[in-house]
Amino acid sequence: MPCPPGVIVDISTVIGLVIGSALVAIAIVIGDNPGIFLDSKSALIVLGGTLGVTFIKNPLGRVFGTFGVVKNAFFGKVTPIESLIEQIVELSRKARRESLLSLEKVQVEDAFLSKAIRLAVDGMEPAAIKTVLETEVSFLAQRHKIGQDILDGMASSAPAFGMVGTLIGLVQMLASMEDPSTIGPSMAVAILTTLYGALVANLFCQPLAEKLKNRSRDEVNARLVVVQGVLSIVEGDHPASVEQKLAAYLEPKLRKENQAQAA
Amino acid sequence: MPCPPGVIVDISTVIGLVIGSALVAIAIVIGDNPGIFLDSKSALIVLGGTLGVTFIKNPLGRVFGTFGVVKNAFFGKVTPIESLIEQIVELSRKARRESLLSLEKVQVEDAFLSKAIRLAVDGMEPAAIKTVLETEVSFLAQRHKIGQDILDGMASSAPAFGMVGTLIGLVQMLASMEDPSTIGPSMAVAILTTLYGALVANLFCQPLAEKLKNRSRDEVNARLVVVQGVLSIVEGDHPASVEQKLAAYLEPKLRKENQAQAA
Amino acid sequence: MPCPPGVIVDISTVIGLVIGSALVAIAIVIGDNPGIFLDSKSALIVLGGTLGVTFIKNPLGRVFGTFGVVKNAFFGKVTPIESLIEQIVELSRKARRESLLSLEKVQVEDAFLSKAIRLAVDGMEPAAIKTVLETEVSFLAQRHKIGQDILDGMASSAPAFGMVGTLIGLVQMLASMEDPSTIGPSMAVAILTTLYGALVANLFCQPLAEKLKNRSRDEVNARLVVVQGVLSIVEGDHPASVEQKLAAYLEPKLRKENQAQAA
Amino acid sequence: MPCPPGVIVDISTVIGLVIGSALVAIAIVIGDNPGIFLDSKSALIVLGGTLGVTFIKNPLGRVFGTFGVVKNAFFGKVTPIESLIEQIVELSRKARRESLLSLEKVQVEDAFLSKAIRLAVDGMEPAAIKTVLETEVSFLAQRHKIGQDILDGMASSAPAFGMVGTLIGLVQMLASMEDPSTIGPSMAVAILTTLYGALVANLFCQPLAEKLKNRSRDEVNARLVVVQGVLSIVEGDHPASVEQKLAAYLEPKLRKENQAQAA
Amino acid sequence: MPCPPGVIVDISTVIGLVIGSALVAIAIVIGDNPGIFLDSKSALIVLGGTLGVTFIKNPLGRVFGTFGVVKNAFFGKVTPIESLIEQIVELSRKARRESLLSLEKVQVEDAFLSKAIRLAVDGMEPAAIKTVLETEVSFLAQRHKIGQDILDGMASSAPAFGMVGTLIGLVQMLASMEDPSTIGPSMAVAILTTLYGALVANLFCQPLAEKLKNRSRDEVNARLVVVQGVLSIVEGDHPASVEQKLAAYLEPKLRKENQAQAA
């Protein structure tokens, strides 16, 4: 179950969002009266209430920052671990053959690996490199955690405000129940808010929070490979030894292919 | 996702409370009969029941103390960590250039930093300073935790009493169901209690508990920076070393800006 | 948020129970037909079912023991920590001035402190005193935990049996629905069981379990102060040192007042 | 809150089951039409579905093994800890006065104690005795844990299948709603499944799982006393020292009585 | 409660699935109108929505990989621990009598044991064998964990989409409630989605997730026996010592039989 390259990760999310939304849309459009499913008051209560609660819980900066984290997590690229290991082993060969400084001109696509190499080339102490990189990884994980907490919080507030909207609608309907023929449509509108809340929570917030968690784990893992790898290079380990150390981050199956390719 | 200065933190809470309450109010006022949404009996059961349970669970002093904790947490100022670090580094420069005693006349806005400096100037041992300050931090965290537990408890009691009120209303309505035309309004009133319970829990208690948790984490972090910083000053660390130690509490991005400013 | 003396703790519980029960009672009495809210069958199912399940889960002795634990926890006295510290410091002064044996005739109100002093006066080894007292504290905490578990279990069983009773009532009503005019009252009675279950759980069992948890924490803390204090006395610590050690159990604010009084 | 001897433990469970079942039965029989509460289809869905899910989750052997664990836990005897300690102290006296081998002919009722003595008499090393007995205790705890997990799983599946049955009944009723007079009885039958699910979960599975947990804790504790005691005997401890060591497993109150008796 | 050989494990799952599905099918077929229970729109919303959410949460590769993990877990063979121990003890006898290399030609059914022996015969260092095998075990556990998380996620999404479908159906029904005679069938169809969601979650996803967890524990245990056993062989332990070490993984009862057989 290897994690495929970043682009495919996003494809999975997009496919999931499309399937889920499309099926709900189809179920609605098939019915007689699809227009009734659009109700701005219901949308305002659910979305506004959820957003309001999110602002109460978190400083403004953190809420807006979450949009960035979510966007980054879905559109930012994650270099797959097996490709990172290959590149690092290649770099360790070059560093051994020529010198650590020769890595200065190497072009690396992965931004974090590139930064790690720069620190190494700049002659920073291994301990200092470790501290700098690991702090960055831990703050990345923390930012992801905050984003995840905010999405999880929205996933639990949305159904609550869905229920609030439905209760308001029910009270209004029951209080002025003169014409029985209006009961149906009024109740339909009242129930809509619950539906909106359920969709916002179960189709968007909760799955995205879970995605962020999975993605964060993959990204943190990939960065730990970089930290370990660059430290090995700086300490002048033999390329074979570098590869062996990093292989611990790979699944057994991938590991063998990797060793075969490296051989 | 830096935490902006204290004032903005409060703005976020106020904005959230306003958005959430306004949307609910609008949804109610748009309807035919907004007056029906005010019902003192429902309010009494939900608020009184929730308060009663809170008193059962906690000593009076702790319940009233919570109001103070909540008020403090929302209106008290939190000096941002980057500003604290700047001030502490400045103080360490002054202590080095002149002497530790020279800090006596320095005016510092942050109350906790000011207290920590006073202890240092009074010639207290570093170990004793650490104990005194850390105990204070741990009691602050404990007070916040108690406040959070009380708010969380209210968030779980309010919907329960909302349901109790609705059940009472339903039983009364069903027991005397002679005139069918009164069923609607009676049921509307019965449902109101559930609505009140949902709003008290989801719009006020639960978000404020969460806010207190987030705020407590930021405040404890800021105080730990002060403890670490003042200890470094007392031990005569070089300002650059003080700055480096404290930088571990900062996000990488902020750290660089900070270092640039300090350079 | 200091914990006020034991008597006030109980006042808080009594106030809470009175407020909660009174509001529910008022809501019921205001209605047309308060008599309908009393139904022995509903009470039997909820109370009997909850008690039955409690007996299934726990040995008889433990269930009856819980009444004692609950009673003790609400009516037993807790000496406030600041008063305990004062007394212990006073005792340590006396022991220094005269001798450890001179404590034999001292009258101490707190039962646990009194017992601890007796052990010290009897010449028991400090390590043995520590073991004896700490085992007693841990068994106290365990008894409280068992009581809390039983109350929590009742809080989760009561609504379940409330639902069982309502389902039984609904089935009976639906099965013999010949005369539509009886539907209302039958359903009212059926719903009553759910109301009883909600009240038993949310107004009594759950809050009392929480209270027991809070109270247990305070009581265990107070006893740990006694253990620490008496050990300090036996080891002949200076009264000032005894006071300093115990101050760690006090909030910073109280600590200063305390030191001021002691000065 | 001492745990009374094994037989009384079972009495508590029996009393609880009788009270709970009797009250539900009375509530049903009091009604007009008790026969309607028996419905084989509803029973099949709830019991069959719950059993089916239990088989999916666990190997057959483990499910059937659980019946044995449950039976053992309710009808097997647990020797109370205070009696075990008395017997062990008695044995340690005999072993000191005569010899370890003299224990060979002693008749002990508790099976685990008897086995432990046999190992000791056979001249096994203390370390080996400890390993053998502790492994047995840990496998006992594991068997109890598996039984508890299975009962807990049933407690969560039963209401789910109750709801499934009710939904099936509702769909059937709504689909063929020609004669309004049949709605009541059909709905009554549909609701029955939910009632069955609630009873199976809340009156049987969940309480028995909890009982097994409590019982397991008592039984493991009793066996640890035996392990500790027999090791003390093998190592030739003085009976007073054996008693003192084991007293740590007793509540302070019982301990004093015990020491009084032993004196 | 020994875990019987792999084949029987699967029989248990198959029996459970058959019992559960059959009972639900019977309850449906007994009714007047079984055809109404098939509704493609409801199936699309529940299955499609659940699948969509699963894709949002996880990379495509991982979702498809789960099918393999699930299939493997149900149809792959697990050699029972007692048989593994017997084989390993036999191998250790052979290795002692002849040589480690003599194991090369031995045919072993269990794939993991076979691989472990190959590593040993190849002359790998014990530490390296341990690392290689333990990494493989930990990745197996991780794959199982991912599969279990995906199934658990589906078990919580399915009822949510069941509710979404029912809400959509209710809104459509209420919005066009001209002909009262269509209310019944429309509502029946609306409720169907909830039924589908409940079945997918409670009869399939949740039990299979639990099964995977139980199975994973057994499989990991069996592999740890192999790791421990092959290391003992490589280090030249006496067969009796090998057997004693591995017996710690067996229940006391089985252990004795095993020793009896081995004797």
What would you say this structure looks like, in words?
Five copies of one chain form a homopentamer. By secondary structure, chain A is mainly α. Chain A has nine helices and no strands. In chain A, α3 packs across α6, α5 packs parallel to α7 and α7 runs antiparallel to α8. The first copy, chain A, is elongated, with a radius of gyration of 26 Å. Chains in contact: A-B, A-E, B-C, C-D, D-E. At the A-B interface, α2, α3 and α6 of A face α1 and α7 of B.
> What oligomeric arrangement do these chains adopt?
homopentamer
The SS-based structural class of chain A is mainly alpha
Mean pLDDT across residues of chain A: 85
Q: Most extensive interface: pair and counts?
A: A-B, 45 and 50 residues
For the secondary structure, the number of strands of chain A is 0
Beta fraction of the residues of chain A? under 5%
**Terminal CA distance of chain A:** 24 Å
Radius of gyration of chain A: 26 Å
Report low-confidence residues of chain A grouped into runs of 5 or more: 1-8, 257-263
Compute the number of helices of chain A: 9
Spell out the blueprint of helices and strands:
Five copies of one chain form a homopentamer.
Chain A: H1 6-30, H2 40-57, H3 60-75, H4 81-97, H5 111-121, H6 126-175, H7 183-234, H8 239-247, H9 252-262
Helix pairs in contact in A: 2-6, 2-7, 3-6, 4-7, 4-8, 5-7, 6-7, 7-8
